[in-house]
Amino acid sequence: MNDAAGKAPGFGERVRALLDQHGSLNKVAHDPVLTAELLLLVRMSFADRTVEPAEADAFAAICTRLLGLHGDELKDILKYLHDFGYETTDAQAAAMLADLDEARKREILDHLATVAKADGEVDARERRLLEATARRLGFA
Q1: 8 Å CB contact between 94 and 36
Q2: 108: closest CA among 36, 51, 54?
Q3: Torsion angle, CA of 93/39/57/60, rounded to 10 degrees?
Q4: Which residues does 26 contact at the CB level (< 8 Å), separation at least 6?
Q5: pTM here?
Q6: For 82, which of 39, 59, 76, 134 is 20 to 30 Å away at the CA?
Q7: Residue among 32, 40, 10 at smallest CA distance from 115
Q8: Which fold, 11-136?
Q9: Which residues contact 108 (CB under 8 A, 6 or more apart)?
């Protein structure tokens, strides 16, 4: 797709167009706290180096039932997180959550634990991510 000058739209223009089409993706892109939580959830899904179907289902359930995101947009949200969050460390994501009230921070830790436990076992890497996040949020 070319614009009037014969150039393809720039990266920023493509992102804006994508966000305009997708309400949940737009919500994620404009909410750094939500983005940080989702990044940590994705990292938890991959912490044991494989994403089991139960972990993917737990992630989807948290996103749709608890965070109010549209299930049909999760693929686009994951792509957004990959494209824009790949340089964000776990510590940086947790720092975005550190000023939340205690109840919300506990809720986020519960979400992380749900994903970690979804496949029936909590791997040492999952445990370390959960414990490090809890410390960064002011617990333990």
Answers
A1: yes
A2: 36
A3: 100
A4: 19, 20
A5: 0.81
A6: 134
A7: 40
A8: TerB-like (1.10.3680)
A9: 37, 40, 97, 100, 133, 137
Task: Report which residue type is found at 49.
Answer: R
Q: Which residue has the tokens 């940080």?
A: 36
Distance CA 133, CA 137 (A): 6
So what's the pLDDT on residue 107?
Answer: 97
Two tokens at 136? Answer: 């960064």
Q: Where are the domains of the chain?
A: 11-136
Amino acid at 59: F
- Buried residues in 60-89 as b, exposed as e (16+ CB within 10 A): ebbbbeebebeeebbebbbebbeeebeebe
pLDDT tens figures, 40-67: 999 999 998 889 999 999 999 999 999 9
